[in-house]
Amino acid sequence: MSQRVTQLFQIKYPIIQAGMIWNSGWRLASAVSNAGGLGIIGAGSMYPEVLREHIQKCKNATQKPFGVNVPMLYPNLQEIIEIIIEEGVKIVFTSAGNPKTYTGLLKEHGITVVHVVSSVKFALKAQEAGVDAVVAEGFEAGGHNGREETTTFTLIPMVKEQLTIPLIAAGGIATGSGMLAAMILGADGVQVGSRFVASEESSAHPDFKKVVVDAKEGDTELTLKELAPVRLIKNKFYQDVKTLYAKGPSIEELKELLGRARAKRGMFEGDLEEGELEIGQISGLIHDIKPAAKIVQEMVEEFKKAQKEMGQFNL
Question: Is the pLDDT assigned to residue 277 strictly greater than 80?
Answer without folding.
Answer: yes
